[in-house]
Specification:
Helix content: 25-40%
Order of helices and strands: EHEHHEHEHEHEHH
Distance between the termini: 28 Å
Structural class: alpha/beta
Mean pLDDT: 88
Number of strands: 6
Amino acid sequence: MLLEVESSQLVLVDYQLKLMPAMKDAQAVWQRAEVLARTAKLLNVPVWATEQNPSGLGQTSPEIRQHCQRVLAKMAFSAVEEGLGEWLSPPAPAAPKGNARSLPRHLQKPPEPDSGPSVVIAGCEAHVCLLQTALDLLEDEFDVWVVTDACASRSDRDRDAAFDRLAGAGAELLTTEMVLFEWLRSAENPDFKQVQTWIKALA
């Protein structure tokens, strides 16, 4: 199953000025988060960010923040506990078209189960705020796609343990380039060359 740009939303967890320097491979992770945010905005994918205790850990970096529709300040480690899921709620299902309502009940198609949009998520620390937010989104029946090379913890062990747990819980694990090329789908996409330039600049 490929990621669909039309149903995607991007959540960037805690890319904060005072937190990021303590992360392993911080510069490369930060770069990838910025490219994800830029590309999402270019392709009309909604971008949301979270900030853990911003008075203590600082705000989201300006390079990322400028692409976000809203930023959620939080104290709970899971952003879902602070209302993120309400931002991501899908629109109300459309009314049936045509004469579907007039068909006998046994001929009507069963209603499609309500499911949330595809939430593409990355952030820090992978084993704390990113993990708890993603697990809560999965519990709320969102499709969760974790961008592994745009996530960080202070140690590889903690980061990798988070990925193992998320995969076991049903999240899809992918990389920044996988997200971008699945959103674009074709070299004929009018935004392909611009996004390709950003990809080539990644360390």
